[in-house]
């Protein structure tokens, strides 16, 4: 899809998105557990500046939010942002395409960056590049938490594609952890934790030592 097509798609989906994610089959199996696990890994504390990339209707940020953090939400869909803004009135929101240059208003450093069910819209070759772009926004002890459509191996992805072919979207590119991790620059550490048969959580952080 083109950017305009994606924008229209998510604007239209905004009214029913929160119902859609409650499904227990592909692609949203384990959605709530994945978001809860992301919150545990994020370990957001008072004073942190947090970026939610692809904030959508705000489901993840609602779990993260407290009055003592500086929360920024970026999304392609203004209608999604409108819903999130009603739920998170203290947050800062930007409507922008994550594949383009970061908006000038976006701060240049974050303690925590989170992204839920967003980056599977990037082609496989773009995912390592996006991780590096996000890592460049991190404070020295910062971390990136990604929860998404993801599989530990290419075999697992193909098995699920066959089993759920009627639900499979050819315009989406679920993560394959073994492929992505092998292509990540050594300047960051990446781990993957599967949560459901079609989703899991990546943690990206600076190397130790």
Q: CATH superfamily name?
A: Vaccinia Virus protein VP39
| Number of structurally distinct domains | 1
Rg: 16 Å
Beta strand %: 25-35%
| Secondary-structure class | alpha/beta
Structure description:
The chain is of the alpha/beta class and 209 residues long. Helices cover 33% and strands 25% of the residues. The chain contains eight helices and eight strands. Strand 7 and strand 8 form a beta hairpin. The longest helix has 12 residues. It is globular, with a radius of gyration of 16 Å. It starts with a helix and ends with a strand.
List keywords for this structure.
single chain; 209 residues; alpha/beta; Rossmann fold; eight-stranded mixed sheet; 25% strand; globular
Summarize this, please?
33% of the residues lie in helices and 25% in strands. With 209 residues, the protein is α/β, with parallel strands linked by helices. Strands 1, 2, 3, 4, 5, 6, 7 and 8 form an eight-stranded mixed sheet that branches.
Provide the fold topology:
Layout: H1 3-13, H2 17-20, H3 31-42, E1 49-53, H4 59-64, E2 70-75, H5 78-87, E3 92-95, E4 110-116, H6 126-135, E5 138-151, H7 154-163, E6 175-176, H8 177-183, E7 189-196, E8 199-205
Parallel strand pairs: 1-2, 1-4, 2-3, 4-5, 5-6
Antiparallel strand pairs: 5-8, 7-8
